[in-house]
Design a protein that fits this description.
The protein has nine helices and four strands. It is globular and about 55 Å long.
């Protein structure tokens, strides 16, 4: 069975081709070509990608990304579709899932939802399971600065406590797993998530995002 990260990678590329290089994304000011350049640089040019986490090298990263974004669009799409280079640890299935499943899903939705597309009517269970694993692993770090406690709830599963209740209370984020992933990654504007809890706690939480 093709692993979910690969399926999502190909789906992202298909949507990119459908919409074209100049279509907007949620990662403003990047257009589709710029976002694809980011994905390729991230996994094929670690010498340039270091600027993502080292601000002093940010200009070098931006220049490299702009250069890649200027490639012929078909070449750029093919580079992303082909996946990590042969020397990358991400060629190994479990590493690819850990490094790229969330990245491909979130950026795919960055393209889709910036262009008026609704949430997909259905998701492959393998994708949902992989995203749920990622969500459980990262929720504590994602919400550790929240002024209130945070729990995540999706159908058919026990709540995941990302942060224990504080003196200011707690909230519960309720949604299918893909929407929770988008919310946790900062896409609050487009994520279809219900926030349950006392009014004061909800207000404090939303103000902190």
């Amino acid at each position: 069975m093709t692993r979910p990260s690969r399926v999502e990678r190909h789906a992202l590329c298909d949507t990119a081709v459908e919409l074209g290089p100049t279509a907007p994304t949620l990662c403003e000011p990047w257009d589709v070509a710029s976002l694809l350049a980011h994905l390729h640089l991230r996994e094929a040019r670690p010498d340039l990608a270091v600027g993502v986490v080292v601000p002093l090298l940010g200009d070098r990263t931006a220049a490299g990304q702009a250069q890649i974004a200027a490639w012929p669009f078909e070449t750029l799409v093919a580079a992303v579709r082909s996946g990590p280079p042969v020397w990358s640890p991400a060629r190994f299935g479990p590493v690819d899932e850990a490094m790229n499943l969330g990245e491909m899903f979130i950026h795919h939705e960055d393209i889709r939802r910036a262009n008026g597309m609704d949430p997909r009517p259905a998701y492959e269970q393998a994708l949902v399971d992989g995203l749920a694993t990622m969500l459980r692993r990262t929720a504590g770090l994602t919400f550790h600065r929240s002024p209130v406690g945070v729990a995540l709830r999706w159908p058919g599963h026990r709540d995941v406590v990302a942060k224990k209740p504080t003196a200011r209370g707690a909230v519960t984020l309720v949604a299918p797993v893909p929407e929770l992933v988008l919310y946790a990654s900062g896409r609050e504007r487009v994520a279809r998530v219900e926030i349950d809890g006392p009014d004061d706690a909800v207000a404090a939480f939303t103000a902190s995002r």
